[in-house]
Amino acid sequence: MFWPWFEPLETIRTLKRLGARCGQLGLPGEYDLSAASALAWRAACESEDFPIATVFAAYQGESYADIATVERTVGFIPQATRQARVERTLRLSDFAHILGAPAIACHVGFVPEDPSAADYIAVRDAVRQICDHAGGNGQTFALETGQEPAPVLRQFIESVARPNLRINFDPANLILYGTGDPIAALDVLAPWIASVHAKDGDWPGEPGHLGQERRLGEGMVGMALFVRKLREIGYSGGLFVEREVDMLVDRLADMRNGLALLATLAGVQ
Ligand code: MG
Q: How far is the CA of 37 from the centre of ligand 1 (A)?
């Protein structure tokens, strides 16, 4: 999982030096989604033989400072920005289509547990709209896991009822948000998992706070067990190292070590 740290070609070459063979491109809320921008990424990926599996949407005004702030600012829950963010996601789908990526994804925000809640219905309808647009581009649309317990997410997916709706499974998020054991969540969500983040972290120390993200292999996920469980449920897609530490130099070093760990655990990167 990477972001446009540099120009496309330099970013892709940096990832390859870390040991990555493919990736997921995250785009900030202000990033240029024009066709020219997508074509620049496509040219870089083709020249480096580096496929993009997923394009992730992030949105202006989101903050992951603590759980209340996430609830207030992330995804399609905030009403004031909902329509603009949905429209940006449709444009991101078009960007991904030009780039040649088969999937898009985002955090939709905290899904309410009550299916009759106004926010639940609005987010469900937004996800349907995005699924239908992505489907027209031949793409799946994946929801990032972790902000709600696995059974809540499963129920939400079933109520959206769109064949191209999938999950990007992030084991660390379930721990960081205190929503559940990621290994057990795999059993609940297995049929929908299209892609997986290799990220690690510790449980929250106190209510309302997020847990601490850790370098891969140093948190509470239990990466060896997690990778073994992915095999058991028949998952055969990509494992994408994600690291969200602030300093890019640290992030890249940790990603290199994470990729090496995965190669040891799974024989894949
Ligand atoms: Mg993630």
A: 24
Q: How many other CB atoms sit within 10 Å of the CB of residue 103?
A: 24
Within a domain: 3: no
* Residue 210: CB atoms within 10 Å: 20
- pLDDT digits 0-9 by tens, 191-218: 999 999 999 999 999 988 999 999 999 9
Which residues constitute the domain of residue 261?
Answer: 8-266
| 33 domain-assigned | yes
Dist. CA 183 → ligand 1 center (Å): 16
Q: What is the tally of structural domains in the chain?
A: 1
pLDDT in tens, 123-146: 999 999 999 999 999 999 999 998
Give 137 Cα–ligand 1 centroid separation in angstroms.
24
Ligand 1 centroid to Cα of residue 243, in Å, is 8
Tell me how far apart the alpha carbons of residues 240 and 12 are, in angstroms, rounded to a whole number: 14
